[in-house]
Specification:
The structure is a single chain. By secondary structure, the protein is an alpha/beta fold. It has three domains: about 250 residues, no CATH class; about 55 residues; about 90 residues, no CATH class. It has 18 helices and twelve strands. A hairpin with a 4-residue loop joins β6 and β7. The longest helix has 23 residues. Bound molecules: flavin-adenine dinucleotide and iron/sulfur cluster (2 copies).
Length: about 425
């Protein structure tokens, strides 16, 4: 029988999760290592075999995260609210990521960029490529919000003799890339990250769009916005907006019915092992202004930021609300899930979220904390023996303020074993 690994990439990304992850360990996000010739390195590099993020962090920064925002956002030298002065209307936001990748090629700083194009004939199916021209990188703009085996392209990198490389990808990919980096015989590697959470296999993304939209086939772009709504842009340019609270997750089999086990066991939303991470989570509203935020993490990241800086406009961080009460309530809901409320209640919740809910930096903190809590609980429920290997220490430190409510609800401590301590310079 044909296995997923013997298929070309444009076919692999169309497969169902069950088909493409067949023969893999229980937790696999199809980062691309196992369909490449680097598969024998799986035990050393896979984030779901052993999460080495704290070890890699020490190598990159000489220390682990300090208490406070670093626990949620990762270590960075500077963070900024930014957008392209000349925006790319085809991009996911303002197009900073692809503009940066293209500039690196244009300036001769790299010979190739691993980026994610689209499978021909589809709007959203990912096709990882080794782009050799600025135009190819720009053409890969926009999210293809599905599992994408980007590290498979490392074989093409080696075969084509590319030794100065930029990689654009998600945190599970970046973990494996950092773990393998010294064995790749590269002269230079630039790691550009996008944040990532709740990714899905392509057929499951189509299922989601069917539930969320009145016209799923015509959607060309969608995003989970910071105003608690999904915005879906259609071929004719109109934007359909659906409140998070109105999404009928039960029609998808619940979160555990649609998200791969790996994405529910992922603890690096903000892609913290990159040189630079570019996302939107803490950026100010409204989304139509396309503000983004970036975390410049390393010296190499500063080099990258200086390349894109002349093409940027700078904004200011905003902040509103206090997440503590809402997140404590979320812990209670994790233990005792409530059904979907009737429409009038949902309308009230949506209004409250939009008008009273956390904004800016506080919104980013709240979303990351919710995902950490949800995923920790998922690992405990479904893969408890793996917890010591795949949940990094900083997760417990980040969630320390919810330890009491967690213990009250779940009848067990938030920490496994010894309470983790502040982890500073090593
Ligand atoms: C599944 C997914 C979930 C995300 N969730 C969040 C989030 O919760 N919060 C947040 O702040 N940001 C999130 N992002 C990132 C965000 O949506 C934008 O991609 C980012 O802000 C860059 O926007 P841009 O306009 O600069 O990118 P563009 O210039 O449009 O470039 C987008 C880049 O993303 C790459 N890409 C597209 N699809 C994939 C994929 N499946 N796997 C790997 N790389 C891909 C492309 O190669 C391209 O280089 C997510 C991205 C993805 C793919
Ligand atoms: S996540 Fe990557 S390294 Fe881990 S099993 Fe899947 S393809 Fe292999
Ligand atoms: S949610 Fe995590 S595991 Fe899933 S694709 Fe994104 S970075 Fe990888």
């Amino acid at each position: 029988m044909t296995t997923a690994t013997s298929r070309p990439l444009h076919e692999i990304t169309l497969l169902s999760a069950a088909e493409r992850l067949k023969g893999r360990p229980k937790l696999c996000s199809d980062c691309g290592i196992c369909s490449s010739s680097y598969r024998p390195l799986l035990p050393q590099v896979c984030v779901f075999v052993e999460n080495k993020s704290e070890q890699i962090e020490r190598k990159l920064h000489g220390r682990n995260r300090n208490d406070g925002d670093e626990l949620l956002f990762g270590i960075s030298r500077s963070i900024h609210v930014i957008r392209m002065a000349k925006q790319n209307p085809e991009a996911q936001w303002s197009g900073i990521v692809t503009a940066l990748g293209a500039l690196l090629l244009e300036r001769g700083m790299v010979d190739g960029v691993i980026t994610t194009a689209t499978v021909p004939g589809t709007h959203h199916a990912p096709l990882p490529i080794l782009a050799r021209t600025p135009a190819e990188v720009i053409a890969s703009a926009r999210n293809k919000p599905c599992l994408s085996p980007n590290l498979d392209v490392l074989d093409q990198v080696r075969e084509s003799g590319v030794r100065r490389l930029a990689f654009i990808g998600t945190s599970c990919q970046v973990h494996a890339l950092r773990a393998i980096q010294d064995q790749l015989d590269l002269e230079k590697l630039y790691v550009i990250g996008i944040p990532c959470t709740d990714n899905v296999a392509y057929p499951d993304m189509l299922r989601f769009l069917k539930v969320a939209s009145k016209s799923p086939e015509t959607i060309v772009h969608h995003e989970f916005m910071q105003d608690f709504r999904v915005w879906m842009r259609h071929e004719d340019g109109h934007i359909e907006k659906v409140n998070y609270v109105d999404l009928d997750v039960s029609a998808l089999g619940g979160e555990r019915g649609i998200f791969p086990a790996a994405c529910l066991s992922c603890f690096d939303y903000q892609n913290t092992l990159t040189d630079i991470t570019i996302g939107y989570l803490a950026a100010p509203l409204p989304p139509t202004e396309r503000w983004q935020w970036t975390m410049v993490r390393t010296e190499v990241g500063e080099e990258l930021f200086s390349v894109i800086r002349p093409f940027l406009e700078f904004g200011t961080f905003t902040q509103r609300g206090n997440r503590l009460v809402g997140i404590s309530e979320y812990v209670r809901m994790l233990k005792r899930p409530r059904g979907r409320p009737p429409f009038p209640i949902r309308a009230l919740i949506a209004w409250m979220q939009r008008n009273r809910g956390p904004r800016g930096m506080e919104f980013a903190r709240s979303v990351i904390e919710m995902k950490l809590l949800r995923n920790l609980q998922y690992v405990r429920d479904e893969h408890s023996r793996m917890e010591p290997r795949i949940v990094p220490c900083h997760v417990y430190r980040a969630l320390a303020q919810y330890a009491q409510v967690y213990e009250e609800e779940f009848g067990r401590p938030l920490y496994n074993g010894q309470r983790p301590t502040t982890n500073t310079a090593v």
